[in-house]
Amino acid sequence: MNEVLLHAFNGLSLGSILLLISMGLAFSFGLMNVINMAHGEFIMAGAYTTYVVGQHVAPLVGGTEAGLWFLLALPASFLVAGVLGLLLELSMIRFLYGRPLDTLLATWGVGLVLQQAARSLFGASNVQVSSPSWLSGGVALSGGVQLPYKRVFLIALVIACIVAVYTYLHRSAGGRRLRAVMQNREMASCLGVRARRVDAATFALGAGLAGIAGCALTQLGSIGPSLGTNYIVDAFMVVILGGLGRLPGTVVAALVIGVANTLLELSTTASLGKALVFALVIAFLQWRPTGLLALRTR
Amino acid sequence: MYTSGLDVEDRPAAGTSRRRALCVAMAALAGAALLSACGKANEEAPAPGTTPAAPASDSASIKVGVLHSLSGTMSISEVAVKDATLLAIEEINKAGGVLGKQLVPVVEDGASDWPTFNEKARKLVQQDAVAVVFGGWTSASRKAMLPSFEELNGLLFYPVQYEGLEQSPNIFYTGAEPSQQIVPAVDYLLEKGKKRIYLLGSDYVFPRTANKIIKAQLASKGGELAGEEYLPLGGTEVSTIISKISAAKPDAIFNTLNGDSNVAFFKQFKDAGYTADKLPVLSVSVAEEEVRGIGADNIAGHLVSWNYYQTTDTPENKKFVDAYKAKYGATRVTDDPIEAGYFGVYLWKMAVEKAKSTEVAKVKEAVKAGGIEYNAPEGLVRLDGKNQHTWKTVRIGAVRKDGLIDEVWSSGKPVQPDPYLSAYPWAKELAAK
Lengths: 298, 433
Hints:
The structure holds two protein chains of two kinds.
Chain A: H1 2-31, H2 39-57, H3 63-66, H4 68-91, H5 100-122, E1 138-140, E2 146-148, H6 149-171, H7 173-183, H8 185-190, H9 195-217, H10 232-242, H11 247-267, H12 270-287
Antiparallel strand pairs in A: 1-2
Helix pairs in contact in A: 1-6, 1-9, 1-10, 1-11, 2-4, 2-5, 2-9, 4-9, 6-7, 7-9, 10-11, 11-12
Chain B: H1 18-35, E1 61-68, H2 75-94, E2 102-109, H3 114-127, E3 133-135, H4 139-152, E4 156-158, E5 171-173, H5 182-191, E6 196-202, H6 205-221, E7 224-231, H7 239-248, E8 252-256, H8 260-271, E9 281-283, H9 288-294, H10 296-299, E10 303-306, H11 315-328, H12 336-355, H13 360-368, E11 373-376, E12 379-383, E13 390-391, E14 395-399, E15 405-410, H14 428-432
Parallel strand pairs in B: 1-2, 1-3, 3-4, 4-5, 6-7, 6-8, 8-9, 9-10
Antiparallel strand pairs in B: 10-14, 11-12, 12-13, 14-15
Helix pairs in contact in B: 2-12, 3-4, 5-6, 12-13
């Protein structure tokens, strides 16, 4: 019984990580058709922001153990990555709308620049972020099985992000404008929505969400200049499987891939499990090219 | 790209700004290429048919190549090795150079990309006519460069422990081969009563070859294989693997993970409730430099196997650590590959001085005659005349809370290199392949 619970938890937890890293991409790629290869570097920017906050702010707010700093690092990562995204949108992406392949090349270049910038700023070596004491350890179950607090926290964080994004999109004026522009740009413009401004805000929001993912991932993995490259392929896979332009699709896709990956890995090996997930995703897209929950194309 | 709910036509028409946008994109790409120091476009490949230049330089100086990844994922490890190599070159120059000539390092970036390593190696040997190249880290990069060094008759000093079963006439190996790192580490675990061993590695050539060796060794020495798992290189999702390890109930884990996966593994292993007392992990690709990225409190108490630690107690090491920190900053640490990158330059210098020439054939001849040995920071090291590997002392260490590593066992004397494990009857079939 515990075994089953543990594997279900692992699947859910992997799904939550996938959702965290792909939610931002669902905006820039899913909604705006920008093949944003720099998405991984926004994640990295969030991770390094967390590192900086941990180094310089933590001693002021009770030390690394107390962990208040980590709660401050979350919004800080969102802001830093969001501002980077905004700058990228204003300086480059806005010239490239409607040309997805150009955005692929350009953002890939930007990603390299950001990686090398991180190398110059923080050194090529990985850095370390220590965990707040309330995230260390886990809930012990019988039979020596333990559910780490970090994973529980990640699941909670993802749920909080989903609720926040949903509320923003459906309950706020800014969110309504965003949906209006993404659904019908001309009509929205005619009705007085400043479409350009909405573009910039949407892209920045996507980047900011990547920043939050980066902050959370410092608790699980490495923090180095090439951190983003570990996650970028998974993020694209989730968004494509979910269906472009469909945020609920991204949520479902992340959970499906997370659980499928865990189950497949359990019965095979890590490498084979991952390959099988890719194969299944490709097969599924052959059958339904628009993804799990696709919009009916107009 | 398939059509989504948002058609391309929905986007603002970019007509007037098309050319400008193109310029911006091109500029960004060019910038990226420059910054990441790939810069392939800047380099003309040597014209085919050019004869390999004689490995000589002008009368007052000798060019030597330094080829490591200064960008990309492997730069994490390789930048520090490059630094140590340059430190040795600087020290040698201060002390009067080699054969009375100053060494001029030509530093190239392999960019964590194996074809780039090969390209740069060819450039160093053909275009720059360097006398020797110090470089490489991953086995993939070495295997990529190997044919070029053999074809152009260049010379490579390779500073990292590797999986063995190789002996190129144009490569000197200053890192450990399995009998100087992996085999003694497994023996150590067995001696400590850790019979059931779980093998965990990254999915590429080094861990898979190392694990083949370990399995043969376990089978012949009464050990037991508790399980074997490989994580894709760079993978960070280890919760399922930790579940599998829990189910297998091993006495110890032999870890050949490389790079970022180690960070993810040790962080999540600790959160799953495992400590070094409960289930020790012995790693062969985690040194002081990697411990910093993992976080010392996540890996404290676990074991590693190398030939050198920053704490190794020799007068030469004290001098080396001081010089390294003075040059690159007090927060930097030294570790095994860094040290091998450092003393490799000295071994080459001794061979050249013995040969009285930088010509590859003569240098190799001098090594073959034997007696090229040096008091390195790790103790005495000697280039083996027969197999071009290095005699090295083996040390098992335990990670301290402050991130340094304490020696807990040592072979006491340099161990003869045996890249094909010919002295081990159980390894016969491995070497035959």
